[in-house]
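User: I'm preparing a small set of examples for a lab meeting where we compare how different chains pack in three dimensions. I only have the primary sequence for this one, and I'd like the structure in token form so I can line it up with the others. Please keep the answer compact; I'll paste it straight into my notes.
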Amino acid sequence: MSSSIGVPIKLLHESQGHIITLELKTGATYRGKLLECEDSMNVQLRDITVTQRDGRVTKLDQVYVRGSQVRFFIVPDMLRNAPMFKWVQPGATKARGIGMGRGKATVARAQQQSRGRGDRGGFRGGDRGGFRGGDRGGGFRGRGQ
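Assistant: Understood. Below is the structure token output for the 145-residue chain.
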């Protein structure tokens, strides 16, 4: 699992092998054992009980559901104690050795501004917005002038 995925997707992956319930956008509910799931929330279930909106109940051996059609999932209550829900200590998130180093970010920012990139206009130290008129002369003066 990649670290770029969110907690809900991680929770869904943790639910593999357990019985889950999901409701589709059509209103039908599917309850069965989660065999496989993807980061796009596509799921594969086995031994499913399907309850339609009108109350009809049917049994299916296996089904694959596209994630974009799912309204919500109900996962096992035991996953409430999953490690992804543990509170992180305030000082534990500070990474060491990452970034520009102490004070270097301020120096880099100052160097960028001294090169003329911090202001508007494209020329180094030159006229800001030089072709749009103004009191500096030159450039575009309007039609017929």
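A couple of notes for your slides: DSSP finds two helices and five strands in the chain. The mean pLDDT is 80.

User: Perfect, thanks.
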